[in-house]
Amino acid sequence: MALTKAQIEQKTKELREFIADHKDVQGPLMPIMQKAQELFGYLSFETQTLIADSLGIPVSEVYGVATFYGNFSLDAKGKY
To answer: Which end of the chain is least crowded, N or C, by CB within 10 Å?
Structure first.
């Protein structure tokens, strides 16, 4: 089921708060990406960009981690 605009805004707010709480710890990228995946079900380009901008790293670094580890999905999963 697709998320409503309000749901997306709420989940984005939750992710921003999580990033703020974790960006200064050592190795924050993986836990932040895992939280984003938990919230949205996948890592969209917009979500990857938000993470990268918040951490001050290139989007390519987030994308590289997302494609290296099999537990991350870049596409929304369909419901069958």
So the answer is: C
Cα–Cα distance, 42 to 80 (Å, whole number): 17
What pTM, to 2 d.p., does this model score? 0.90
Q: pLDDT tens, 65-80?
A: 999 999 999 998 876 6
Amino acid symbol at 61 = E
Tokens 């590289």: give the residue.
Answer: 64
b/e per residue 41-72 (b: at least 16 CB within 10 A):
eebbeebbebbbebbeeeeeebbebbeeeeeb
The token pair that represents 76 in the structure block: 């929304």
